[in-house]
Sequence to fold (203 residues):
Amino acid sequence: MLLYSAPFAPNPRRVRIFLAEKALNVPMRDLDLAALGQKSEAFTKLNPLQRVPALVLDDGAVLTESVAICRFFERLHAEPPLFGSGAREEAFVEMWQRRVEFGLFGPVALAFRHSHPAMAKLERPQLPELAVLQRERAADFMRFIDAELAERPFLAGDAYTIADITAIVAMDMTKYGRVDIPSGLLNLENWRTRVSSRPSAKA
Fold:
């Protein structure tokens, strides 16, 4: 297998954190997104959408989309379970993963893509007014999860999961999208400290 990644891109980082939590060592090849390495002819043959991550399997098939790649490794290596164990847990993890992806990860990514100068080549046209709206949406969702985190240590329950991975990557991306974190969200702040202290967060 070979995983195509990129050092500063959020979606590849989700996969790297997931693999670190599983203590899996998968061969990786980094693409230089600033130099448009993802648009090269060789990579476009692997993923016509020209996005990372992309996992080339041993049989030559190419799996893309970060959560799909994580699910693949979850089935191969069940411990620790990062998508939940049993019907109830799995359903709640899926619910929170989707909530975070739509309510926080997506808005922060859009704020970044539509405001940061480094994205001008990739996001055409950049829409500054869209970035403003997405910052507000992300802040509202942070308030929502702050209230939820008063009830439990992690987003989907008592255990760290893929939902926490998606959320911490989004929170770490806020500074690049100039997304302000509302003041007074102590539960969110404590959760972020807890999750960021895990060795996998450095992946």
The chain has two domains: 2-76, 86-202. Residues 39 and 189 are 38 Å apart (CA to CA). The longest strand covers residues 2-5. The mean pLDDT is 96.
